[in-house]
């Protein structure tokens, strides 16, 4: 089918075949090419969800520790640290 979009060729290696076989269990009756597309879209959604969850986890850790260690660094600490830095 003619298209202006990039095309990708994927060899059905043992790992790819296993992934498609697993997808066939989840979505029986679909052709292997359609299962491959489902794997790609499902994988992308999973990565997005994982990324969002990781950001939320990091923000929660920042909020939890915010202000807890104010006494660890005396006033002027950064200025003193930067004093030896090259200009």
| Number of strand elements | 0
**Major pleated sheet:** none
- N- to C-terminal distance: 61 Å
- Note the run of SSEs as H and E: HHH
Helix content range of the residues, please?
55-70%
What would the principal axes of the Cα set say about the shape? Answer: elongated
The rounded Rg comes to: 25 Å
Portion in beta strands: under 5%
Detail the poorly predicted runs.
none
Q: Strand pairing plus helix content: what structural class?
A: mainly alpha
Total helices: the number is 3
The pLDDT mean sits at: 92
Outline the fold blueprint.
Elements: H1 14-26, H2 32-65, H3 77-82
Structure overview:
The chain has three helices and no strands. Helix 1 crosses helix 2 (32-65). The chain has a domain at 14-67. By secondary structure, the protein is mostly helical. The chain is elongated and about 70 Å long. The termini are far apart. 61% of the residues lie in helices and 0% in strands. The mean pLDDT is 92. The protein has helices spanning 14-26, 32-65, 77-82.
């Amino acid at each position: 089918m003619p298209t202006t979009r990039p095309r990708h060729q994927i060899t059905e290696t043992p790992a790819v075949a296993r992934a498609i076989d697993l997808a066939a269990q989840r979505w029986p009756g679909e052709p292997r090419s359609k299962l491959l597309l489902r794997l790609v879209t499902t994988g992308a959604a999973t990565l997005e969800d994982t990324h969002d969850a990781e950001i939320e986890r990091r923000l929660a850790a920042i909020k939890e520790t915010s202000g807890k260690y104010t006494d660890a660094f005396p006033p002027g600490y950064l200025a003193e640290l930067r004093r030896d830095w090259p200009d």
